[in-house]
Amino acid sequence: xxxxxxxxxxxxxxxxxxxxxxxxxxxxxxxxxxxxxxxxxxxxxxxxxxxxxxxxxxxxxxxxxxxxxxxxxxxxxxxxxxxxxxxxxxxxxxxxxxxxxxxxxxxxxxxxxxxxxxxxxxxxxxxxxxxxxxxxxxxxxxxxxxxxxxxxxxxxxxxxxxxxxxxxxxxxxxxxxxxxxxxxxxxxxxxxxxxxxxxxxxxxxxxxxxxxxxxxxxxxxxxxxxxxxxxxxxxxxxxxxxxxxxxxxxxxxxxxxxxxxxxxxxxxxxxxxxxxxxxxxxxxxxxxxxxxxxxxxxxxxxxxxxxxxxxxxxxxxxxxxxxxxxxxxxxxxxxxxxxxxxxxxxxxxxxxxxxxxxxxxxxxxxxxxxxxxxxxxxxxxxxxxxxxxxxxxxxxxxxx
Length: 400
Hints:
Radius of gyration: 38 Å
Distance between the termini: 126 Å
Largest sheet: 8 strands, mixed
Number of helices: 10
Shape: elongated
Helix content: 40-55%
Strand order of the largest sheet: 6-7-8-9-5-10-12-11
Oligomer: single chain
Strand content: 15-25%
């Protein structure tokens, strides 16, 4: 339903709210007319109302003529559409929500350009950026900072993208940010084109994962925005999205999707130690081999090192250092994706794993010590037996 039709219905509803106060004791019920309103179908087109029909109902002495609400005449205005075949609806009939229209909460604000889709992927633990850049030089955008753990590539109609006043929103240009630790962030890439861009990076990736992680976000451009940026539910609104903005947004999304992978890895270790502890609770012992325990130690340490060193989770972006506008975007997105809180949760789980590893190592060490002690006892016992046998043998020979 159109906005005009909704406002017309709201006007009549506000009018009918006045009727309950007009009780039958104060005036005859015949004075109140049955009002009808015209409902405009959603598909119908209409023009500006051509006339306003005034229907007057006179009221007598029960009403105070000085009352600010009720005067000597009660006027009901009804807008008449130029669509003659529109159906009518009685006020005592239920109004369907589809006729009234949906809420305007999901509507794009005036002046906002079409949204830019942002997709983040994590499908490997390492990418050879040098080879990737060498093989795709026409698409590589030169870096503006000293950070070398990522590369920014642009695809599409490059001449049109580089023209003066060109905008990414609604264009055929797309960007891809590739990080050395395995994350890929795509800007303005359609669904059916995603696999093609991922295959470009796959040739230079190592440590491919059995399951690819994925996350989605949205960027909106609004040139007449009062501030540089404005956050929203699963989107960020900017006056204009440029290369530095793409680098800043891509860095946070790349870290977020990679952190999600490492959190799941640690969750797997926590679940494994939980099963071991439950087994110990039932049987009083555990059967883990020393080699398996050392593998868990190496996995926990490598995950923590990758998060801190490879992801650079606590390293501020060089672009954010130079420009306060991008620092605002960087800080907002880190808070939006809760990177600090998620790392704190990861660190807590790793401490739990570390505590269990230390406990199991002590048990294995005690087992080894017990084995060595029993081995020494057996050897001493064997030596005693040999000595006794030797003495007895010599005694028998001497007696002969």
